[in-house]
Amino acid sequence: MRTGAGRFDSGRERGGRADTSRRAAAPCGLGAALAVVATLASVSLAAPGPSSARAAGAGAICSAPGSAKVPCRFSTPSGNIRCIWTPKPNNVACVLRSTGRAYRLRPSGKAKAIKLTLARPGKTLALNQQIVFPGSLSCRDTKRTMICNQDFATGAFTLAAKGSHSS
Do 159 and 94 contact (CB within 8 A), yes or no? Predict the structure, then answer.
């Protein structure tokens, strides 16, 4: 017999037991959903730290849309080494500003010592960043060193204040 006040008033229609399982599940489910939303909101609203800002800006070097057809200039964080990648002919060339020592590396062959002057520094790489170019060329830097190599061959050069060499 129904009392008319609600669906689960007294539970007398079901053998004297009140059905509270649906009532209890709703607050728990709602609480869990609120906890998930609060966690996601705190993660998405967190202010980016300096390292994530640096990584976001650093990823844009030589990787903008259409950058595979445009020369790209970059330098070490200290600015003592400046480099340029050119798409035609595909090569990377770097110069150590203090001594003028410079090397060029192409996808085939070994690194070659060249004469090079780069007046503009280009984009500054983040510390220990690696840039990969078409034709299996890549360069990575430390604060005062640039190492460029062929990813699947033996050509490479290391440019530093002490110990510059090519192979």
Answer: yes
How big is the CA angle at 102 (ends 100 and 107), to the nearest 5 degrees?
170
Q: What is the DSSP-derived secondary structure letter of residue 18? A: -
The model carries a pTM of 0.63
> Once rounded to an integer, what is the mean pLDDT over residues 130-145?
91
Q: How far apart are CA 77 and CA 15, in angstroms?
A: 79
Tell me 90's DSSP state. T
Where residue 54 falls (left for φ over 0; alpha for ψ -120 to 50; beta otherwise) is alpha
Alpha-carbon span 128 to 81, nearest angstrom: 14
Which tokens in the block code for residue 42?
């705190």
Element (H, E) at 72: strand 72-75
Q: Are 148 and 92 in contact (CB under 8 A)?
A: yes
Give the pLDDT band (50/70/90) at residue 30.
Answer: very low
pLDDT for residue 52: 35
